[in-house]
Amino acid sequence: CNISYMRKAQSMTELLRKALNECTSWNAVQHATGVKRQSLAKFARGEQSLLLDAADALAKHFGIESRMKGK
């Protein structure tokens, strides 16, 4: 998936879920990030959260950046 998200009003969780739900190949995401497809599916459905290293890998893959307010 080649999706880039930069919105201030959404949380990182919301952005990652949106990116995953718009992605057509979770197998490709798994291959690129090392996050298992089963974990991706459970996260996308809101059934579980992600460990920070998994969230970091997904954010990097989707081009999602976080910025501190006021910086």
Walk me through this protein's architecture.
The protein has 71 residues and is mainly α. It has helices spanning 12-22, 26-33, 37-44, 52-62. Helix 1 crosses helix 3 and helix 1 (12-22) crosses helix 4 (52-62). The chain is globular. The relative contact order is 0.23. The mean pLDDT is 87.
Q: What does the main sheet amount to?
A: none
Beta-strand segment tally: 0
Going by helix content, strand content and strand pairing, the class is mainly alpha
Distance between the termini: 29 Å
Q: Low-confidence stretches at least 5 residues in length (pLDDT < 50)?
A: none
Overall radius of gyration: 12 Å
- How many helices? The count is 4
Mean pLDDT: 87
Helix content: 40-55%
Give the H and E element order.
HHHH
User: What share of the residues does DSSP label as strand, in percent?
Assistant: under 5%
Q: Estimate the global geometry from the Cα principal axes.
A: globular
What is the compact description of this entry?
By secondary structure, the protein is an all-alpha fold. The chain contains 4 helices and no strands. Helix 1 (12-22) packs across helix 3 and helix 1 (12-22) crosses helix 4.
